[in-house]
Specification:
heterodimer, A: 110 residues, mainly beta, five-stranded antiparallel beta sheet, five-stranded mixed beta sheet, 10 strands, 55% strand, B: 114 residues, seven-stranded mixed beta sheet, four-stranded antiparallel beta sheet, globular
């Protein structure tokens, strides 16, 4: 089955860029998602990228995909304290359920 | 209405109790999901209903019993739970079937089993 790895913790200062990395094993993943979970809340879809794309930009968010290395990253520009949350990477292969990585806790200090 | 509503938000139950968690969405989504999330862990898939039929059961113990009365409602019936079942239970829905990973999540029901 799919194995998804993420670094567990990232600490940045307000205004800096944050980069959250993810590696996965299932090369048949067609869509790769990033979800955000704020304390005490459910998950919220942030963005996603199709597997035939290298990059997708959406306002402060940039997703980079290296399909050969099965590596996905999420860059948050001008990180704000409101970005403090847990970020989950979730690759999706056809016919399978969405599997979440272990999650990266982003801590933003002012 | 783009919400998935879960009730109750908090539930405390004894090991001999029978209780239910409820989930509702009015977005016309045809797939609904139950996830279990322990503290500092990712959500783990429990059940998926697609077009009101159970399509995925991730080998969940029978003390958890899902029910999908109609396309807008999803229940999780709980009976004879163990303290290790204490967790945040998240409901989600998606448009169409289960081919998409665009899930809409509720805020969760936090369950404590004494």
């Amino acid at each position: 089955g799919e194995d998804v790895e993420q670094s567990l913790f990232l600490s940045v200062r307000e205004g800096d860029s944050s980069v959250i990395n993810c590696t996965y094993t299932d090369s048949s993943s067609t869509y790769l998602y990033w979800y955000k979970q704020e304390p005490g809340a459910g998950l919220q879809l942030l963005t996603y990228i199709f597997s035939n794309m290298d990059m997708k930009q959406d306002q402060r968010l940039t997703v980079l995909l290296n399909k050969k290395d099965k590596h996905l990253s999420l860059r948050i520009a001008d990180t704000q304290t409101g970005d403090s949350a847990i970020y989950f990477c979730a690759p999706k292969a056809p016919g399978t359920a969405l599997i979440f990585g272990k999650g990266t806790t982003l801590s933003v200090s002012s | 209405d783009t919400e998935v509503t879960q009730t109750p938000k908090h539930l405390v139950m004894g090991m001999t109790n029978k209780k239910s968690l409820k989930c509702e969405q009015h977005m016309g989504h045809r797939a609904m999901y139950w996830y279990k999330q322990k503290a500092k862990k990712p959500p783990e898939l429990m059940f998926v209903y697609s077009y009101e039929k159970l399509s995925i059961n991730e080998s969940v113990p029978s003390r958890f019993s899902p029910e999908c009365p109609n396309s807008s409602l999803l229940n999780l019936h709980l009976h004879a739970l163990q303290p290790e079942d204490s967790a945040l239970y998240l409901c989600a829905s998606s448009q169409g079937g289960t081919d998409t990973g665009e899930l809409f999540f509720g805020e969760g029901s936090r369950l404590t089993v004494l």
